[in-house]
Specification:
Elements: E1 2-13, E2 27-32, E3 41-42, E4 45-56, E5 59-70, E6 76-81, E7 88-97, E8 100-103, H1 109-124
Antiparallel strand pairs: 1-5, 1-7, 2-3, 2-6, 4-5, 7-8
Amino acid sequence: MNMWQICVAVGLFAVPALAAEPAANPGLAASAAGVRDEAHARDLRLARFDVVVTTRGAVADSEVKARFTNASNDILEGDFTLALPKGAIVTGYALDIGDKMVAGVLVDRPRAEAVYEERVRRRVD
């Protein structure tokens, strides 16, 4: 069984009340071979979800730790979504690789998509 953990630091400024959302929050979906269709959909389980919140005045710092488990031997691509309140800012994230938390890099969407596509092509080519 494969296990992955991700840690996200979120700064919430003047946190408003949360409205009820019809969609699952957090959300988790997985696919095999980088193909997002029903034939390649796979089960990826959110095994653990911890949230620690520290407040200072009108600012709430939240640390979210999520652990995913893959019961199959397939290499999966997971889509983890976490709806945040209006005004929330992601200030950092890390991925557990070989029992070591490796800090991620926040980049703009076009750059992130280009890096992602290059990585996916590397596995195909």
